[in-house]
Prior knowledge:
about 250 residues, mainly beta
Amino acid sequence: MPNEDFAGFITTPAIQNVIVRVTGVGSPFISNINGTIATSNPANFFLLNPNGIVFGPGATLNIGGSFLATTANAIQFGNQGFYSATNPEAPPLLTVNPSALWFNQAASGAIAVQSATSPGPNLQVPNGRSLVLVGGDISVNGGRLSAPGGQVELLSITDPGTVALNNDGTSLSLNAPVDMARSDIRFENGAGVDVRADGGGSITLDGRNIEVLGGSFLFAGIALVWGRWAVKRGILRSGQPGQSRSAAVRSNL
């Protein structure tokens, strides 16, 4: 999607989820998003591309629900089957929410978020909603992720397997097997995550090595309480299975 382009998805109030997949294979099919993704009603938006996803300086969101971008190979819908990017058969009519992300390759595609061209976050969801990135190495280079009063969750993995997806209609969250090998998450050059709001929000980063460098920041679930900023919730999980899950976090803030 070139700079300043607009990809709009017209939905009715009855539609709960919009799911977009990329079915080509190889680096020419990496999603390079440098414009606006928009929906006309408060539906959740899922982007599926196993090759990789890059949010460029002009990338923005204008959606009414939560947002999930993943380099998984398929999204599972309970016992109704899979919506696959690598085996793109026509899916059945789906009447349940997505229940899991399915990875069947040893090295998952990377996800990158680059610096915004204007002040403010590249990727922001409405208050109380979720912004979720799930793939191989995840890098945020000067970019900003925002979910006021909601949840930002990043999961970086390098093993085949299934990641459970919890969807209560408003927010999304992940449940990855503890023995699934993790990959790396890196924030640099003033990158950041912000979930501040009156009710507070939460940040979950789950990877092998988590680096927050070069003036980058994590404003994790911070709410204004009696005139002071008070942390509500933030989770960092780092390290491989069988190792310390907190020893590899590095910061030079």
